[in-house]
Amino acid sequence: MTKFLNSSIPQSPNHQILSPNHQITKFSHQITHFPLVALVGPTAVGKTTLSLRLAKEICAEIISVDSVQVFRGLDIGTAKPGLEEQKQVPHHLIDVADPNEPFDAADFVRKALGIIRSMTLSGKVPLLVGGSGLYLRSLLEGLAPCPGRDPMVREMLRKVSANQGERALYDLLVGADPEAACRLHPNDTFRIIRALEVYHQTGEPMSIWQKRHKRTPGQRLVCTKIGLVRPRKELYERIDSRVGAMLDAGFLEEVKILLNKGYSHHLKPLQSLGYRHIIRFLKGEMSFDEAVSQLRRDTRRYAKRQITWFRADPEIRWYHPDALMSLRRIWHG
């Protein structure tokens, strides 16, 4: 069955954002078979609402491409689709691990490929939705053949972090792999440890492994990529509103429940955006107002990094979400 993107969708170049009232331009993106479809963009841009509508149009099921929504109990802080939204369209790779279970890009790729195979056999379209660029790239392009986890190296690095602070690990990475350090936030302890682990095991920076893998011809999954983006002021206002809505919905209580269950605040998911801010407030390291202010600031910075990551992919076609939602059909055939 041949399908194609609605020819009346307004399309933007890589560095231009279309407003909903932009003059509609026509294009035909013919697809001889239905590939994977990815809907990506920064946090709070509006992916969830649009993904539900698109999934219904193309008879798709949603595969979450979010490195934190995989963890059970982390709901409000990750803006995880609610039960009602999950009833409308089946969702996958949400709530598949406990917060103290290891889960990385390799785990995501392995599980996602199995789900995609199953969906393809049942005639469903896999709709990849999320903002974790590394997970999406790893799925579509494959993982660099780096060595696996080394518990002894990880324990050594965790001791460095415990004794000298998280910044010490980041400083080590700056010396070992400055390119990777530029891409990672100093608080992203999990990925910093992984990059240092690879360097310790092989003597080569992870960035070199990734470049070598990218140059190696191999199997690539066919994927139509749709990017959502808004003007900066509009996006930042939505981020501020989302933070307020999360707090109103009980985000503080959600973090307390996780800690009361015995989960360490050092765990990867509890060091993620939002959770680490609330934990610092609960530990008395900052006031509530300071925690909220820093959460809003860091979310805006995270959104900016997401946009930078996805803008580097020339295959993504960018749209303002309202421009797509205003159409009678986003996709037709």
Notes on the protein architecture:
- The protein has three domains: 3-145 and 219-231 and 313-332, Rossmann fold (3-Layer(aba) Sandwich), CATH 3.40.50; 151-213, Histone, subunit A (Orthogonal Bundle); 234-303, Crystal structure of tRNA isopentenylpyrophosphate transferase (bh2366) domain (Helix Hairpins, Orthogonal Bundle), CATH 1.10.287.890.
- Helix 3 crosses helix 4 and helix 11 (251-260) crosses helix 12.
- It is of the alpha/beta class and 333 residues long.
- It has helices at residues 47-58, 83-88, 105-121, 133-141, 151-164, 166-176, 178-183, 189-202, 206-215, 232-248, 251-260, 275-282, 288-311, 321-325, and strands at residues 3-5, 30-31, 36-40, 60-64, 91-92, 125-130, 223-228, 316-319, 331-332.
- Residues 1-33 have low confidence and may be disordered.
- It starts with a strand and ends with a strand.
- A six-stranded parallel beta sheet has the order 5-4-6-3-7-8, with helices on both faces. It has a three-stranded antiparallel beta sheet with strand order 2-1-9, with helices on one face.
- The chain is built from 14 helices and nine strands.
Question: In terms of topology, how is this protein built?
Answer:
Elements: E1 3-5, E2 30-31, E3 36-40, H1 47-58, E4 60-64, H2 83-88, E5 91-92, H3 105-121, E6 125-130, H4 133-141, H5 151-164, H6 166-176, H7 178-183, H8 189-202, H9 206-215, E7 223-228, H10 232-248, H11 251-260, H12 275-282, H13 288-311, E8 316-319, H14 321-325, E9 331-332
Parallel strand pairs: 3-6, 3-7, 4-5, 4-6, 7-8
Antiparallel strand pairs: 1-2, 1-9
Helix pairs in contact: 3-4, 5-6, 5-8, 6-8, 10-13, 11-12, 12-13
